[in-house]
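Researcher: We are triaging several targets before committing to wet-lab work. For this one, the compound of interest is adenosine-5'-diphosphate. I'm pasting the protein sequence and the ligand SMILES. What I need is the predicted three-dimensional arrangement of the protein with the ligand bound, expressed as structure tokens, so it can go straight into our comparison scripts without reformatting.
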Amino acid sequence: MRHIGAFSTQPVFNVASIRQIEKALFSFEGNSFTVMERAAQALFKHIVTKWPDAQHFVILAGAGNNGGDGLLLAVLLKQAGLQVLVLDCAHSPRSGDALRAFEAAQRAKVNVELFSIEQVCSAAVVVDGVLGIGARLPLREDLQCVVHWINQTKHKGAAVVAIDLPTGVDADTGYAQQCVEADLTISMVQLKIGNLLGRGGIAAGQLINDSLGSQSIMAEMSLAGGQLHWLDVRQFVKQKPCPRYLDSHKGSYGHVAVVGGDHGYGGAALMASEAASKTGAGTVALLTRWEHVTASLVRNPNVMAFDAQQEQVLSLGIRNHCVLVLGPGLGRARWGQQLFTQMMALSLPTVLDADGLFWLSQDSEVELPIGSVITPHLGEAARLLGWQIEQVNRSPIKAALLLARRYRCVVVLKGVTTLVVNERGDVYMAGKSEPVLSKGGSGDVLSGMLGATLAYYKDTLEAALMAVSWHNYAAGEMAVHKGVHCGQPYDVLDYLD
Ligand SMILES: NC(=O)C1=CN([C@@H]2O[C@H](COP(=O)(O)OP(=O)(O)OC[C@H]3O[C@@H](n4cnc5c(N)ncnc54)[C@H](O)[C@@H]3O)[C@@H](O)[C@H]2O)[C@@H](O)CC1
Ligand SMILES: Nc1ncnc2c1ncn2[C@@H]1O[C@H](COP(=O)(O)OP(=O)(O)O)[C@@H](O)[C@H]1O
Ligand SMILES: [K+]
């Protein structure tokens, strides 16, 4: 556990660290098979708790220890008087604990058949014990058939449980081309990156981690990849994004200046400024094209709207100790470029988003002001790094870390699960899939929210985590009330209270 402000987060590990923890756990317990037995008990407990009426189970078991867990689970289900069939997917001989588990299943007279794509399945629950953290991708062709069969079975109505992680997901990155789509994933020992990020985060379904007793031995271990954290958005939002106190005034909550909105893109700047205000900034100014000033005043009279080209705007709209949100709708023409240069020269903590990131990528000399945050999506991160988008998709943590070090700032790498990373190398993963956010404008709202939290919190990382969590959580609430199609990016702001 790590504490950020009043909140705790869960540690997440790469495969190398999980192997280290497992090794320590095996030596603490005296042998590894005991741990596999405990894994099977944990699986049994979680599955019968979730599906108390299920009578019929099918378990797909691979050659490794993930299959071993599945085989021992089959023994427990049989002993409980339930119907269970193991479909054997091992195309190499079993050894070690996996072999012992297979022998235990045979002794218990568990029904084991060789997997065939023609197999008809009427089970209520199908368990994926094909591959765990030992998987090397791409999947061999026969295992691709197994994955396809499991997903087809799910479409016919069975519930799917993945042991440790869905087969087909890369445990170190969450990347997958074809993978099992689980309803429930029971992660063993500790959370892995692949349980949370990218395709892996979606394919996991509901995620439970069972530490199998590893918690107590981890305190003394120094682990590679120990800087990774999972943040439960629901826990973070117990505190309002910018909590208000009784003896406060507008100056207590800081000033945010949103800069952007070239011709055609006024909406982006309007949404960002509205977001800053509704998130709780004390005062908000919008510096935009004069054509957008009236629209802003009509929609949000609380936001001071200025023509960015007027000389005196700098003294009116931008104040000492204020935070800038630079980029929403800034555009890639001369107007945007000039504003970018002018604003960077002020050395104020800045949220750099959208076209602000474009201008950043065009100028290798720029140094970001202290306390700044950049908010790229995968494409913007790829442009800043000179990578292909697919490269960022496959290695998002590496990409975010490189950006945080290069620009000496906090990086919010946006996606279904968003990464928040600082220069020191702390990595936070936050958010669950909210397809209602997959609409132009969602990023603009987030950048405005970030402006407000950055003005409020002393700690830049905490500010970023607060905005990202609230954005994701409020989107979920908004989707319930307005629907995933009708809900608009700015509607998120009605669910912050
Ligand atoms: N006592 C134990 O050993 C414990 C094991 N655990 C389980 O063990 C798993 C790790 O076990 P393993 O290290 O045996 O790894 P896996 O069970 O993930 O699989 C390794 C096997 O799959 C094969 N394989 C890998 N990639 C493949 C591909 N693309 N196509 C075809 N075959 C492929 C390998 O050659 C090897 O035979 C964890 O995920 C977890 O489920 C945990 O439950 C903790 C306790
Ligand atoms: N399916 C999704 N699940 C969760 N969050 C999402 C999803 N789709 C988009 N988002 C979030 O919405 C925002 C989109 O930002 P961005 O791509 O910059 O949009 P825009 O530039 O159009 O405003 C990000 O915060 C991203 O994390
Ligand atoms: K699995």
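Researcher: Any quick observations?
Model: The first helix runs from residue 15 to 29.
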